[in-house]
Amino acid sequence: MVAFDALPRRLGRLVDGLGIVARTVGPFDTNPVPADWSHVTKLDPEDAKKLPLLYPLFLRHTSAVSVGGSSDVTAANTEETFSLLEPLSVPAFHEPSEAKHVTERTRESAAFIAIPEVLNGDSESLVGTLGVGTEYIREELTPGMLSEKLPWWTPNRVLDACSNVATSLLLSEAVFEAYIIQNPDSAAAREANVDEDDLLSARAAKQHSMAAERHLESELVYLEYSGTYGGDEAADILAAVSESLDWSRLWYGGGLDSREHAQAMLDAGADTVVVGDVFHDVAAEEAKICADARTDLSPDADVRTVREWVTDTVGVEESAARRYLSTVPSVDDPTATAERYLVATVRTVLELERLEAVVAEAGPETRDDVCSLVDEQTDTLPGERYLQSTAGEASRTLARTIAVDVLTRRLDLGDDTELPVSHLSTNQ
Ligand SMILES: CC(C)=CCC/C(C)=C/CC/C(C)=C/CC/C(C)=C/COP(=O)(O)OP(=O)(O)O
Ligand SMILES: O=P(O)(O)OC[C@@H](O)CO
């Protein structure tokens, strides 16, 4: 009996040992989070936070998009955000703040699920919420999904065993993010009960990260200053932590809105910088710019007129569009790129206005009517040529859907749109 027990234990230890050797000294990088992601954009699905109308243009430069946020997030607005990202080639992953935000749809859309575990918060934020989430997945999500897929006569015992396996598979596929939260005034700190006394020195952050890599096997360590730039203190922490990590990635997020600050965090040792607020600022700013443009410019304004208007009226140098783009290391000239994208946005809004006048004249009653009228009216759809560089072959379909949906809402023909365009700046 003892001998029978000893063999599987020994085998288990051998497999574990081989895994450790492969992770630490093996020639292959076994971390599922790509090492070459230098920039991640965090999209908050909450209704108050909008996306720029030509969001595919802005997102073409980022390495990946993270979907998640800590307030007013629901499964429905999370699914909506993913559906806007589906036509794009940029990978999108899900960072749920509650397990209930994970649905079959979000799982299909997301490259992976990233689960926060806060290293310097209370135990609730390290394992408590994970326990609540695991219970939900084991007892509600997977039984619900499986009972739809398996034949009705599947015995309960089999359904239960399958749910058990599916839960473990879901968690084994998830990426764990070991958060070190250093801004006590942030929503993230409040959520995880991090206060002044919990902030870590560079040395303690390094020690916590070493434990996260080896004990928690966290795919990434996330230095979080959410809402504020961490400066020299963050750079010291990144330097200490990066030295100690072999396998886990090191991400920095918080208050980035310039090339200088983003580069400083990368130079200090971060593999990836994460930006959130400044991307949503692009949409908020754009709503105002477009409202002004509709007052100042004729819907027929040519490209030169629009460019001049943007140069004279919008301070491109100070714009959120430029600030966002300047955080992306691969964008060589953020000012010129921001100006191009702002001109593209204003032109698209004017083209939409022109199209709206023609469509409204015909008196459509349903979204289908709008669709036929749009198809009759135009060879090139508003925004289509700008989306070509980023959505490729999908650009026409995407531009058509956005145009039809935006006009359907503007003409009060209902909210039953194909894409959730209520998340775009034009619908503020
Ligand atoms: C098991 C599954 C699928 C899910 C569990 C979901 C869990 C454990 C969520 C953890 C929630 C938690 C402890 C959050 C702590 C705070 C935190 C790290 C928030 C991340 O910050 P943002 O969401 O970016 O904050 P803002 O909304 O302020 O930008
Ligand atoms: O919103 P900002 O301050 O850019 O922070 C990004 C991210 O680290 C938040 O979780």
From TrEMBL:
The keyword Nucleus does not apply. One of its GO terms (molecular function) is metal ion binding. Signal peptide: none annotated. SUPFAM superfamilies: FMN-linked oxidoreductases. Its EC number is 2.5.1.41. InterPro entries: GGGP/HepGP_synthase_I, GGGP/HepGP_synthase_sf, GGGP_HepGP_synthase. Keywords: Lipid biosynthesis, Lipid metabolism, Magnesium, Metal-binding, Phospholipid biosynthesis, Phospholipid metabolism, Transferase. The keyword Transport does not apply. This is phosphoglycerol geranylgeranyltransferase. It comes from Halogranum rubrum. The lineage of its organism: Archaea, Methanobacteriati, Methanobacteriota, Stenosarchaea group, Halobacteria.
